[in-house]
Amino acid sequence: MACIKGRPNLVKLVCEAPLQAKQSVHCCFSDHTINTPRNQVYRAALVKCAKILSERGSVQALDAARMTIYSLNAVDNKDLSKNQIEGIARAHLKDSATLLACRDVICGLSISPHPGIAREFFSYAINMATLFEDYCYRLMSTVLAEFDIRPSDDLTFPLDGGGQTIKLDGLFGEIPNQILMECKYKSIRSIPDLSRADIYQTVSYCCHVNLRPMVAVICVPAFEDDAPVELLGTIGGFRAAKGKIHVLSISLSHRPDELEAGLAAVFSRLLEE
């Protein structure tokens, strides 16, 4: 054969014996098909988006999604897990941002606090996690001032060794009456939806040598907008923060004054305990 057919696998070629006359060259032919793992992720995300759009009656956007899906008819429509998609993203670093965005669409992760409703790619244009954190901090500062509890001047605390520090989302009051706030911009309906990493992080903050929180709260966006603020539940079983971390859902569709009233009612109960 006068020339190579396909894409030569140079790594495999170099790792074997030196090139000899009539030696076979390992080639990959998968790049000659549209049915690649990367395109399978794109198709799965488009199918999910088309389903969302059909439920909301977005005719023009739905037609565009269907036309794109039609152009990918030769691509298998596979059920891909979160780990599989992340593996494909690691193998295609140039497209990793797009592939991870598709992962969030397919798996219903933290694209918006309302998965499947109207704002699928909103947080990729704006850093919603930081906005949510700042919003909760301002609300808490206003509400806790009514209890004569002021924001801490410093949210950064050093760790011994390595010059590392931790930075809190919110800290209010003075030792021993501190209130620690952590924010998680994720779709969380109930306590079991919180990841262990989120819980461990908050517990580790509570155990810092310079912190003595009497109340620790994790704020998450509300999945249902019936109430401005809702106490989803309490996590216990450790010594810090009187053994409890309270999880609060904060609505993004209510007015700030409604949220402040809801937070005031919740903290009235928490501070009495």
Question: What would you say this structure looks like, in words?
Answer:
It is built from nine helices and nine strands. The longest helix has 20 residues, at 37-56. The protein has two domains: 8-125, no CATH class; 128-272, Trna Endonuclease, Chain: A, domain 1 (3-Layer(aba) Sandwich), CATH 3.40.1350. With 273 residues, it is of the alpha/beta class. It has helices spanning 10-15, 37-56, 59-71, 82-91, 96-107, 122-125, 128-145, 196-206, 256-272; strands spanning 7-8, 27-28, 156-158, 165-167, 170-172, 178-183, 213-221, 229-236, 244-250.
The number of helical elements comes to 9
List low-confidence stretches: 111-125
- Net shape: globular
DSSP E strands, number: 9
Strand arrangement within the widest β-sheet reads 5-6-7-9-8
CATH uppermost class of the largest domain:
Alpha Beta
CATH topology tier name of the largest domain: Trna Endonuclease, Chain: A, domain 1
Class from secondary-structure proportions: alpha/beta
| Head-to-tail CA distance between termini | 82 Å
Throw out a few tags for this protein.
single chain, 273 residues, alpha/beta, Trna Endonuclease, Chain: A, domain 1, 2 domains, 5-stranded mixed β-sheet, two-stranded antiparallel ribbon, 9 strands, 41% helix
Describe the secondary-structure layout.
Blueprint: E1 7-8, H1 10-15, E2 27-28, H2 37-56, H3 59-71, H4 82-91, H5 96-107, H6 122-125, H7 128-145, E3 156-158, E4 165-167, E5 170-172, E6 178-183, H8 196-206, E7 213-221, E8 229-236, E9 244-250, H9 256-272
Parallel strand pairs: 6-7, 7-9
Antiparallel strand pairs: 1-2, 3-4, 5-6, 8-9
